Amino acid sequence: MAPVRWLHFLLSLVALLPVSRAQSCWRNTTCSGPRGTAFPGPWESNIYAPSSRTVSPRRILSIASPNKTADYEESIPYALHMDEAMVVFDFGVEVGGIVTVNYTTTGPGAIGMAFSEAKNWIGQSSDSSNGAFKGPDGALYANFTKAGHGAFVMPDHKLRGGFRYMTVFLISDGPTCVHIENISLEIAFQPTWSNLRAYQGYFNSSDKLLNRIWYSGAYTLQTNAVPVDTGRQVPMVEEGWANNGTLGPGDTILVDGAKRDRAVWPGDMGIAAPSVFVSTGDLESVKNALQVMYNTQASNGAFDESGPPLSQKNSDTYHMWSMVGTFNYVLFTNDTEFLLKNWDKYQKAMDFVYGKVDNSSGLLNVTGTRDWARWQQGFNNTQAQMILYHTLKTGSRLAKWAEDTKALSGRWEHQAEDLRRAINEHCWDEEYGAFKDNATETSLHPQDANSMALLYGVVGKDRADRISETLTQNWTPIGAVAPELPENISPFISSFEVQGHLNARQPERALDLIRRSWGWYLRNPNGTESTVIEGYLRNGTFGYRSDRGYMYDESYVSHAHGWSAGPTSALTNYILGLTVTSPVGLTWKIAPQFGDLKSAEGGFMTSLGKFSVSWEKKLEHYTLHFVVPQGTRGNLTLPYIRSGEEPSITIDGNDIYRGVYYIDDTATVTVSGGGAHKVVVR
């Protein structure tokens, strides 16, 4: 062993234990999370979440030779001296929280610490997060005036919400040597959980890449569930970063990104909340995120575009996403107390947005033009029409669940049908085979509106088939470019497209797009290899929106953004085929789509109990097992083995002939009573 390394080894034997403030849960929060996983099994090897709330780097990554790695045990402690003044520690996955560094120094100087989600931005200045758009965030410094042992603990307001790489460097005018004895991280996300691996849902299939993608979405959503006092500070700091803003009620809340913005954005929850339900099951964070939107609702009924302290306004689409999020949360929980508490405000929100519908055209006139990042918004924007249609449809169901006596359910259902007819009359481009971006003449056919048209059932089968095929014209080898945000690939909008193809019963296209986009990022050695990214460019760089002048530098992009977690719910709800259709699963649907997979299994937990499905497809038949809680009722929608040929079906060994509904190469059977069952289709 080299003399310097031998010295490091000796010092490690006498180093003080790492300074850590980790508790069973984050700080003084109540440990209300689950103690263990609901579905133990070998698929847990795909979970990216660590087994402890206190973690250390997995290895050293040499900045001089990025592909050279060393085992953690052989590399810690590590010495910083004049000819080797910088070392990069790799935590292996996206992490976030409070860092502690224990060190011994031979003289005066300082050590700096910088953080990065992506390998591209490793260096002595952290990637960008503060929102001031003046460049990288810089570094934190621990100063020392003499030789001896020291311990640096990151100040609470300097909590780093998301990073994988930590660069430690020495600043000294003399021959000072610093020995890094220990680095530990107190994880801040998922603050009410003592066991970060206690997932309440699972997914496993014959495709290992799809399995990893499912779990990368789930882990991203964990990193986006944060303590309510760790939001990005507003007004933004000019230098460095500050994460001490108050986000909302409770102990935990769902935000848009781990590194930034660390604020509630209801549009994100259009994708994030359903994926939370089928994976981690942390609906407490979803509830608190929705409640803050009701708490800050304007007197005219308008919801803010984002939660406090950011509190941006003037977005009709994000206003409606708060309403859709309300539906999703009540569907997954049957939390009628939450629904009734906010029901008057929900009605006021509906009156506000539907009041913008033009009587002559029947279309929404968009005046709140802030949106997800698309290039333009306003007038009769077609994407907004699709969201309003879905808002009316889900509102109609909420009115029934609230046992409303004002005939609101029927009124909103009628308004939804009127809007659907108006959309198809004024916004459809027959020659192109898709919807235009607006009711006016335009050559733009957006990804968002057309994906949502498929997902929300705004069109019949013929138009759905055309849209599904036309959307593939935007595809590149690494994902779908959004025409409404040229040269950019948005996994947020692509999440709607994936689900849209599946709703149009095009599983091969959906799986292809998942592998192209999410597979490309998950296997990208410059990314986190554990989470889902906010967006990226067609050329494969991470500068989402940087080419359009929105962002100061490419390092601002979030590499752990819950709005991109769509494949997690899509694989469960459509490929596995398991969904709940009324609160907490009193009614349910199982409608698998095989694509090119040979098998899949998965499930999730509700307050009624466990729901699980597994299927295996052979050449001439397939077998499906499912378990649902007692007292529930649902529909099995079973694909034909051979197109156009009605299959034979047995359930628990009994031939099924009566009560089968055949349509579009599927056979639907109603099953009542719950329990475990075996289905064979030939």
Q: How is this structure best described in words?
A:
- It comes from Aspergillus nanangensis.
- This is Alpha,alpha-trehalase.
- InterPro entries: 6-hairpin_glycosidase_sf, 6hp_glycosidase-like_sf, Bac_rhamnosid6H, Bac_rhamnosid_C.
- Keywords: Signal.
- The protein is of the alpha+beta class and 682 residues long.
- The chain folds into 3 domains: 166 residues, Galactose-binding domain-like (Jelly Rolls, Sandwich), CATH 2.60.120.260; 374 residues, Glycosyltransferase, CATH 1.50.10.10; 101 residues, Maltose phosphorylase, domain 3.
- The chain is 28% helix and 23% strand.
- It is built from 14 helices and 30 strands.
- Strands 1, 2, 3, 4, 5, 6, 7, 8, 9 and 10 form a 10-stranded antiparallel sheet that branches.
- Helix 10 runs parallel beside helix 12.
- The longest helix is centred in the middle third of the chain and has 20 residues.
- The radius of gyration is 26 Å and the shape is globular.
- The termini are far apart.
- 53% of the residues are buried.
- The N terminus is likely disordered.
